[in-house]
Write a structure and sequence with these properties.
It is a single chain. By secondary structure, the chain is of the alpha/beta class. It folds into two domains: 1-142, no CATH class; 144-221, no CATH class. Helix content is 38%, strand content 13%. It contains eight helices and five strands. The chain has a five-stranded mixed sheet with strand order 1-2-3-4-5, sandwiched between helices. Helix 5 (154-163) runs antiparallel to helix 6 and helix 7 runs antiparallel to helix 8 (206-217). The longest helix has 16 residues, at 69-84. The protein is globular, with a radius of gyration of 20 Å. The two termini are 21 Å apart.
C-alpha cells in the first residue's frame, strides 16, 4: 500500500500532520532487510528516509492485538538508530530520529497503548527513568468512510475495503471506489494483489475481484 514515495508522503502529511508538508521527492525507500535480519517474526514492513535530515519513518502493519507491541517498536527504533551510526566517522555521534508508524488492521478495537512508558511499572521514586517512546497509531476502526474516500489515495481506498464487515459491504465500497477512480490501473492491481488470497476470510470476495481483473484486461485502461 505504501511502496511508493507518493503514497508515503500522503500518509505522513495526512496522518502525522507535520508543520511543513513532506514532498514525495524528499523521501527515499530503504531496504528493510538490514533490520529484519535480526528478527524471525514480527518484522518491519517498510522504512523510508527523509533526505533533508536524519529522520527515518518506520512502517509496521499490525493485524492482531499484541500487548508487546510497544516493546517491539522500541526495539526496532533502537536497531535502526544503531545501524544509522554504524559507519559514522564523526567524533560526536548524532543518532537519527525514528518516527514509528503502526497501521492497525483489525475489526477489534485496539486497546494496546502507543507509548512504552505505560507498560512499565508505576513507581513514585523512579518514574523519571521510564522510557517515553511513543509511536503513531493509525487505527482502521477510527477512520470514517468519508475521510478515507476524500483522501483520494490508494492507502485510503485499501483501508476502506479492509474495513468492510462482509461481502455486501465490500462490494458496495468497491463500487464507490470504482466510480471515483474509473481508470486507475495501479489501484486495481493493488486491490487484486491484496485481496485475492486463498484464505477462508477472503474467498467470499473472489467474485468481486474477477470484475477488477476484467477491468485490467480492458484495452481502454
Amino acid at each position: 500500500m505504501l511502496d511508493n514515495n507518493k503514497e508515503m508522503a500522503n500518509l505522513i502529511n495526512t496522518y502525522l500532520t507535520p508543520k511543513k508538508r513532506i514532498k514525495e521527492n524528499s523521501l527515499q525507500k530503504v531496504n528493510v532487510e538490514y533490520i529484519n535480519k535480526r528478527y524471525t517474526n514480527d518484522k518491519i514492513d517498510l522504512i523510508y528516509k527523509w533526505k533533508k535530515e536524519e529522520v527515518i519513518f518506520l512502517i509496521k502493519y499490525q493485524f492482531d492485538l499484541d500487548d508487546n507491541l510497544p516493546l517491539k517498536i522500541l526495539s526496532y527504533c533502537i536497531d535502526i538508530m544503531r545501524e544509522g551510526i554504524k559507519n559514522s566517522k564523526q567524533k560526536n555521534i548524532i543518532y537519527p530520529i525514528v518516527v514509528p508508524i503502526v497501521v492497525y488492521v483489525n475489526n477489534k478495537k485496539c486497546k494496546v497503548t502507543n507509548n512504552f512508558k505505560y507498560i512499565q511499572i508505576e513507581d513514585s521514586m523512579y518514574r523519571k527513568y521510564k522510557i517515553d517512546m511513543k509511536y503513531n497509531l493509525i487505527d482502521i476502526n477510527r477512520l470514517s468512510t468519508s475521510f478515507l474516500l476524500n483522501n483520494r489515495s490508494i492507502f485510503g481506498y485499501i483501508m476502506l475495503l479492509l474495513k468492510s464487515e462482509d461481502k455486501d459491504k465490500f462490494e458496495k465500497n468497491l463500487n464507490i471506489i470504482l466510480k471515483i477512480e474509473k481508470k486507475n490501473k495501479e489501484l486495481y492491481e493493488k486491490i487484486i494483489k491484496i485481496f485475492n488470497l486463498e484464505s477462508e476470510v477472503q474467498r467470499s470476495k473472489i467474485n468481486t475481484l474477477r470484475k477488477l481483473k476484467y477491468l485490467l484486461e480492458n484495452k481502454d485502461l
